Amino acid sequence: MNWCVAAHDFSHFLLHAAVLVKNNKAILCPASPGSGKSTLSAFLGLSGWFVYSDEMAIIDIDSQNVKPMFRPVCLKNDSIELMKNWHPSAIITPVCRDTQKGDVAHVKVLSWQQYQQLTPVPITALVFPKFKTGSELKLYKLDQLDAFSQLSRNAFNYNVLGKTAFTLSADIVSRAGIYQAEYSDLTQLATFFDELVQA
């Protein structure tokens, strides 16, 4: 499905990023595979946040607001058992084993009724996450140039949109809070996220 959207939708700016929303403010987490986006998305989605996507941000070119997708969060390998321990009542599919990405299961973080109430929201922060076993939460503010570079590298259709993508990326980094987060404890990172959407 990601390929279908990324290969054919040129009316939106598409980023490889988790989109987490609270208080009508979106935090984008652009990152490469293995950075913990989906685990973080599931954890927050079962803890009072709205998960607009765990891996693709769909940004309206004109309003620059990010739109919701109605999809479960894809958990892989150790994250599956961790999520079952953290949220025993969560609805999780049976595990598909030995796929190209290892063991895979999907967790429901949004009902259809909830999804129907969601609307596009502005981007308030960019957080580039990096999971590191045993690490205390470490936060670094990034400058706009570094954030712009990372944002463009995580875009699916940057080359296709050209100048439009350049301008949109520049606008986003000029008005959003920009951070890099190294973490192992999701509760610590969740507290920081709460602070960002309360500001």
TrEMBL record:
Protein name in the entry: HprK-related kinase A
InterPro entries per record: HprK-rel_A (IPR027600)
Lineage: superkingdom: Bacteria
Species assigned in the record: Alishewanella tabrizica
